[in-house]
């Protein structure tokens, strides 16, 4: 008896050490050097949208753009904790830490819910999720996808826990996570469709699960109250914008149309698996083929078994999502996260099943060695994708990603704006067709007087600095020297010494009034000499 108790205590201590190590690696991968990649256009757009909430306490849900309110309200927590109260005080780390930390919820949920299910499987899944290159990459990205995926899979895990225990705690957590899914992004409808379809399929074809799936009447009521309560609170902006509740439903019409009409993002059905399974270019070799093969083994073992209901639910959930996202013409790389997380669960089951199947043979040692190599390979790929090549176009997870050009160009403009007596009082005109100047508004957020235009106005000559795409250069030059009255013409000189692109193949050029530039250069040389 004493021996058995000692063994259990030892196992718990080992579990504790394992948990600390996994969280340490997960946190390190997600938080280290968090600003090593320039802000993506979408990140910048969300940051500017969040600024209204930060500075004015105002959030209005927009059913056309920007997605749901959770990212904004959770960002308010990190901004306040950091003591940042204005847009100009915000920085990339304060914002990116939101998805980075929230992604840990899925690791925690997996660890605790699989605790009594299968400990070896728990270890394998938590390791794979913690070091997964795609999950780490978008966990360091200020967009909604990581929040959405974390809440979605957490709701599945807690839902299963509720079915096996019937405890109120688990239905409350399921309801909270399900509501947060709805409040995060409009693609929540795909998640609900996939989750309900997966549950129905298991219910129809598995007699055992039929005995488990039923709600206690009061718990169903509690689930509904919490779900609608959280949804109303977020979409009504904490009761300050009641129309946001209706807008949260109207938005689906917009996104249904958008899914098939945005030519810029139209991709073939195999797009996600193409870059996930095999990316090979001059800079990066990336492959998830080992995980994919293990997932195939996992699917096979899973549906040949009579148990493993939770994993069957996850398997069907991710397969249905993969099919739906493959069929939708509108594709961006981060959408792959929705189903690939499920593949990680099933690949883990494939590993654990193979080890169990060959437990008493020499093959087990070979498999153990192979799986350790797969873990190391995944960890290595995570380091390359997230730290060695975090913004390069060759990285399979970057998508029209700005390069460091945007930072160096913005730093120069900000320095000119701040020097001597001109502090933030210079006037800048940014001109780009279809407002294609993002993420410049984020990088120039400390400058007050900026006009953002998609055409050349006749008053262009009143601005101290002009930033534009090359296609407007001739028109700008003509207006700069033909429209001002005699004696009021300013000479403009190039602002940048080299080619500058805000994103791959999206060049910008800059002009600055010669008199201002001379003052700036003189001041810079004087400060350097001192």
Would you spell out the secondary-structure blueprint of this structure?
Blueprint: H1 2-31, H2 41-56, H3 70-81, H4 92-102, H5 104-113, H6 119-131, H7 133-139, H8 145-165, H9 168-182, H10 188-205, H11 207-212, H12 217-235, H13 243-261, H14 271-277, E1 279-280, E2 285-286, H15 289-304, H16 309-327, H17 337-357, H18 363-388, H19 405-418, E3 428-431, H20 440-443, E4 450-453, E5 465-468, H21 473-482, E6 492-494, E7 500-503, E8 506-513, H22 514-529
Parallel strand pairs: 3-4, 3-5
Antiparallel strand pairs: 1-2, 5-8, 6-8, 7-8
Folded structure, characterized:
- The protein is mostly helical and 530 residues long.
- It contains 22 helices and eight strands.
- Strands 3, 4, 5, 6, 7 and 8 form a six-stranded mixed β-sheet that branches.
- β3, α20 and β4 form a beta-alpha-beta unit.
- It is elongated, with a radius of gyration of 27 Å.
- The mean pLDDT is 91.
Contiguous runs where pLDDT drops below 50 for at least 5 residues: none
Quick one: biggest sheet?
6 strands, mixed
Structural class: mainly alpha
Oligomeric composition of the shown chains: single chain
Proportion of beta-strand residues: 5-15%
Taken in chain order, the helices and strands follow as: HHHHHHHHHHHHHHEEHHHHHEHEEHEEEH
End-to-end distance: 79 Å
Mean pLDDT value: 91
Q: How many whole angstroms does the radius of gyration measure?
A: 27 Å
Distinct helical segment count: 22
How many E-type strands?
Answer: 8
Q: Percent range for helical residues?
A: 55-70%
Morphology call: elongated
Which characteristics define this entry?
530 residues, 6-stranded mixed beta sheet, two-stranded antiparallel ribbon, 8 strands, elongated
């Amino acid at each position: 008896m004493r021996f058995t108790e000692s063994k259990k205590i030892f196992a718990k201590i080992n579990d504790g050490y394992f948990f600390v190590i996994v969280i340490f690696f997960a946190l390190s991968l997600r938080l280290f050097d968090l600003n090593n990649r320039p802000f993506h256009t979408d990140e910048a757009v969300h940051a500017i949208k969040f600024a209204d909430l930060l500075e004015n306490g105002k959030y209005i849900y927009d059913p056309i753009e920007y997605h749901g309110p959770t990212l904004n309200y959770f960002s308010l927590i990190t901004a306040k904790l950091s003591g940042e109260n204005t847009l100009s005080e915000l920085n990339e780390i304060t914002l990116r830490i939101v998805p980075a930390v929230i992604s840990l919820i899925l690791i925690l949920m997996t660890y605790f819910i699989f605790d009594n299910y299968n400990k070896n499987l728990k270890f394998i899944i938590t390791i794979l999720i913690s070091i997964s290159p795609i999950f780490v990459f978008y966990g360091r990205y200020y967009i909604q996808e990581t929040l959405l995926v974390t809440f979605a899979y957490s709701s599945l895990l807690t839902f299963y826990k509720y079915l096996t225990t019937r405890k109120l705690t688990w239905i409350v957590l399921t309801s909270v996570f399900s509501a947060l899914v709805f409040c995060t992004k409009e693609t929540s409808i795909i998640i609900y469709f996939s989750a309900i379809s997966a549950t129905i399929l298991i219910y129809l074809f598995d007699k055992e699960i039929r005995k488990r799936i039923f709600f206690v009447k009061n718990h169903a009521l509690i689930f509904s109250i919490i779900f609608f309560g959280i949804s109303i609170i977020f979409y009504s902006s904490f009761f300050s914008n009641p129309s946001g509740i209706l807008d949260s439903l109207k938005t689906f019409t917009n996104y249904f149309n958008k899914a098939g009409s945005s030519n810029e993002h139209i991709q073939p059905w195999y797009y996600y698996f193409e870059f996930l399974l095999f990316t090979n270019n001059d800079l990066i070799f990336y492959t998830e083929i080992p995980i994919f093969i293990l997932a195939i083994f996992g699917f096979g073992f899973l549906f040949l078994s009579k148990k493993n209901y939770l994993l069957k639910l996850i398997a069907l959930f991710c397969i249905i999502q993969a099919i739906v996202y493959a069929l939708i013409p509108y594709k961006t790389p981060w959408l792959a996260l929705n189903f690939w997380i499920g593949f990680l669960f099933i690949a883990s089951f494939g590993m654990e099943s193979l080890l169990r199947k060959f437990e008493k043979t020499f093959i087990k040692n070979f498999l153990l060695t192979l799986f350790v190599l797969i873990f190391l390979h995944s960890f290595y790929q995570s380091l390359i994708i997230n730290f060695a090549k975090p913004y390069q176009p060759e990285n399979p997870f970057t998508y029209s990603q700005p390069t460091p050009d945007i930072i160096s160009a913005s730093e120069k403009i900000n320095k000119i704006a701040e020097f001597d007596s001109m502090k933030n009082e210079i006037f800048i005109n940014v001109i780009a067709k279809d407002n294609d100047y993002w993420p410049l508004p984020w990088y120039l957020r400390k400058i007050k007087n900026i006009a953002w235009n998609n055409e050349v106005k006749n008053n262009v000559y009143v601005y101290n600095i002009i930033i534009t795409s090359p296609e407007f250069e001739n028109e700008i030059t003509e207006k700069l020297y033909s429209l001002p009255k005699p004696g009021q013409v300013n000479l403009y000189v190039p602002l940048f010494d080299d080619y500058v692109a805000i994103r791959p193949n999206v060049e910008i050029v800059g002009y600055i009034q010669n008199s201002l530039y001379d003052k700036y250069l003189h001041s810079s040389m004087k400060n350097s000499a001192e």
